[in-house]
Amino acid sequence: MLFASLLAATCSAIAAPVTEYPARTVRLPAYVAERLTKDMGTILDDEAGRAQLAERGIEVAPLSGPAFRQFAVEDLRKWKALSQRARISLD
Prior knowledge:
- By secondary structure, this protein is mostly helical.
- Among the domains are: about 25-60; about 65-90.
- The protein is built from three helices and two strands.
- It has helices at about 30-45, 45-55, 65-85, and strands at about 20, 25.
- A hairpin with a 4-residue loop joins β1 and β2.
- The longest helix has 21 residues, at about 65-85.
């Protein structure tokens, strides 16, 4: 069976764009990223909030910026391979 071990999931992320200007590149300042990471961690660590999400079938698995990037790259690689094996295209 081609898709016997398939596990599909959705994820949510907070992302900030990198803006390219002719003279410079603007990235989210590190202190802002650190504050967002800390505050989101606090929110997602709340047991009552986690219980409410679990009741809705949502599993909380917070990832930091580098870990989320690795997850996204691996996930895209997985889906690309699957779509190629199944000959799925957007045509």
